[in-house]
Amino acid sequence: MQFTDLPDLAVRSLGGAVLAANDESFAEKECLVRDPEPVYTPHDFGNKGQIYDGWETRRRREPGHDWALIRLGVPGLVHGVVVDTAFFKGNYPPEVSVEGCTLGGYPGPAELAEADWRELVPRSQASGHTKNHYKVDSPRHVTHVRLNMHPDGGIARLRVHGEPVPDPALFTRLPLDLAALVNGGGVVAASDSFYSRPWGAIMPGNASSQADGWETGRRRDDGNDWLTVKLAGRGVIAVAELDTTHLKFNAPGAAALRGFDAAAGADMDDESAWFDLLGRTRLQPDTPHRFAVEDARPATHVRLDIYPDGGMARLRLFGELTAEALRDIERRYLTLTSAT
């Protein structure tokens, strides 16, 4: 698996935000975490010059470098960073670096300035009009990142790919979506991701368009498409929500859910180890469907089968963690945060 197959923890739709930048004279810092790919219209000038879909600082005339502070939408372990300089050809930074820190609560820029920042991406060469990939090998739990341009220039997007590790403090006090990315869920496999990434189905909030979710290509065989979700922890699912909102002519005709419990010691490739949560059920286009799940067996993974293909705006699996799973999550979180 490439690190870019992991979700972007900084993206705006996940709750990421650019909290501060030392300069944004030409183009706004908020563009760094926008979902869509950058766009560009030549000779489209505003009061500050050519309009760019990205963050651009003035030409630096003094020593130093430019920086931006980004709050991750969900904290976690960073496995790689993409610094996208799309359309910045004569005004990109020749070098970049990225740092990370961990601060609980909701710190502002002044508090972040005093944080213990540690290197994620050392000062490295960058190219213009390019998606610059930097692999990160760090055990550090990260809540915020600082993007540095050496010395100045423009960057269209910052993608911070990694594994979500949220604070479990509220897990016992809120109804829990065991599949949600913000709660530590993740997609471990999918049959197809032609139109959009599978983890779009476990993003927070309601889908904003047909592109906001998971959608496969059209099948021309007798099979069906599927995705496998790793739950936030071992738990019992009570309600499943299969949401086809905005999918009007490309919704699946039907879907099914099966569970797998890794604690039982079976192999995920053993079909007999999977148990039904929701039998094959007809779906309607552009509709949020909710189904009660009667099987009270714990699961660690859930497979969504769609028939034969199509899209799923959101998959939500509401339930409760087992007491042991919650303790394991709490221990892991304390281990990762104390290591910082």
From TrEMBL:
Reactions that this protein is recorded to catalyse: allantoate + H2O = (S)-ureidoglycolate + urea
Superkingdom, natural source: Bacteria
The enzyme's E.C. designation: 3.5.3.4
GO terms classed as biological process: allantoin catabolic process; purine nucleobase metabolic process
InterPro entries per UniProt: Allantoicase, Allantoicase_dom, Galactose-bd-like_sf
Enzyme kind, highest EC tier: hydrolase
Stretches assigned to the Allantoicase domain: 15-164, 184-321
Gene3D superfamilies per UniProt: Galactose-binding domain-like
Keywords assigned: Hydrolase, Purine metabolism
Pathway involvement of the protein, from the record: Nitrogen metabolism; (S)-allantoin degradation; (S)-ureidoglycolate from allantoate (aminidohydrolase route): step 1/1
GO molecular function, one term: allantoicase activity
Transmembrane parts of this sequence: none
Similarity comment: Belongs to the allantoicase family.
NCBIfam families named in the record: allantoicase
UniProt-recorded name of the protein: Probable allantoicase
Organism this protein belongs to: Stackebrandtia nassauensis (strain DSM 44728 / CIP 108903 / NRRL B-16338 / NBRC 102104 / LLR-40K-21)
